[in-house]
Amino acid sequence: MRWLKNKQETNIPYHPEAIEKALESFPNARISISPTPIHRLLLLGRCISEYETTIIGMAASQRSDVQRERIHQLALLTANRLGVRFEAAKIVVDDRFIGPGYAIASEAGKQAAKMFAVMEGVLLDDVYTGKAAAGLVHYAMNNMFREDDNVLFVHTGGNSGLFY
Prior knowledge:
Layout: E1 2-5, E2 11-14, H1 16-24, E3 29-33, H2 36-49, E4 54-58, H3 64-82, E5 92-94, H4 107-120, H5 129-141, E6 150-153
Parallel strand pairs: 3-4, 3-6, 4-5
Antiparallel strand pairs: 1-2
Helix pairs in contact: 1-2, 2-3, 4-5
């Protein structure tokens, strides 16, 4: 286990071994996610474990160039503190599923959320996680994954929006 100090100088544990073990379950993985902080952390985990995979961030509100730069800056700060090398070239962001904009559901996000609920019993909000799911569905339906790819969809929450 390693320790990282946050801004309040509090020790935060993180477990490179756990990251590596989790990633071993997904050789040739293509990982689909939405929020920037989670994307950054998964990319850092990839760097720490030296695991080769593609992590695809589905932008929910910003153009891909803006999102990539934001992720790069955040990840670089953390990587420097951890003493690991971070490669900006590994940041993959797809902004084709933003729809009408920030905090506004897209038609594709609504359809993907409904598909996940009906077919898998998984509830997604149709704004953020729904947009990431729309990207995943698009990739799958357009054969953008290889046959030997293991695809992991990271559901980061957002369910509270379903009830309020």
